[in-house]
Amino acid sequence: MFQDQIEANKLVQRGLYARWDAHPEERPTERPDLVKEVRPQLDRITAELLTALKDTQRLRTSPSCEPRLYGAAAWSAYGHELDVLHLKGLRRAVPSVCSDVTQS
Fold first, then answer.
1. Is the separation of the CB atoms in 70 and 94 below 8 Å?
2. Which terminus, N or C, of the chain has the lesser number of Cβ atoms within 10 Å?
């Protein structure tokens, strides 16, 4: 599952760089501080993800996992108003959530 997360991140990151190369005016003008802003958020998200994986193991092995997962992903995409690039990233990130729980 973490490999899917990494691949989704790379897909979005490459897409953003391509977008910014084609439209430099869309490029962010400020970079967040890696040590003070980005790393603490990633650490928090990682801890939350590990807890969620543990807490949802039974659900993720259920036959209803995939339809529920894709319903939740669609609702999240709608709620966050994801653009096409981020929809592709989400689609890349979720396939293994319901599979091989022992490797999560």
1. yes
2. C
Its pTM stands at 0.80
CA distance 22 to 19: 5
- What does residue 85 show for φ and ψ, rounded to 5 degrees? -60, -50
CA-to-CA separations, 70 to 44, 46, 47, 94, 102, in angstroms, rounded:
24, 21, 23, 8, 21
CB 93 within 8 A of CB 5: yes
- First-to-last alpha carbon distance for the chain, in angstroms, is 6
Over 70: is that where the pLDDT of 66 sits? yes
Query: What tens digit of pLDDT does each residue of 9-64 get?
Result: 999 999 999 999 999 999 999 999 999 999 999 999 999 999 999 999 999 999 99
* DSSP-assigned letters across all residues of 21-59: HH-GGGS-SSPPPIIIIIHHHHHHHHHHHHHHHHHTHHH
> Cα torsion for 11, 42, 46, 94, to the nearest 10°?
-20
